[in-house]
Specification:
Elements: E1 11-14, E2 30-33, H1 46-54
Antiparallel strand pairs: 1-2
Length: 72
């Protein structure tokens, strides 16, 4: 398996919600590293997001999640 932030226990993703306030029609989505290595403010396009994911390859805080088996 590729060593990516997506597979780290510190990765977080909150999809937000539509129309989360009366004046904001968008989303309060958040995504990033719970250890503070990156968050949604760290990227603006696909290449910079990929670079954030690849930080796991050299990250001292990387803690791989347990993936479910096919039977689950």
């Amino acid at each position: 398996m590729e060593k990516l932030c997506l597979f780290c226990k510190h990765f977080y993703f909150n999809p937000g919600e539509l129309a989360y306030s009366d004046v904001t029609p968008g989303s309060n989505m958040s995504i990033g590293c719970g250890k503070g290595h990156w968050n949604e403010d760290s990227f603006y396009h696909e290449e910079s997001y990929r670079a954030c994911q690849l930080k796991a390859q050299t990250c001292k805080d990387f803690n791989q999640i347990e993936l479910p088996t096919k039977a689950e």
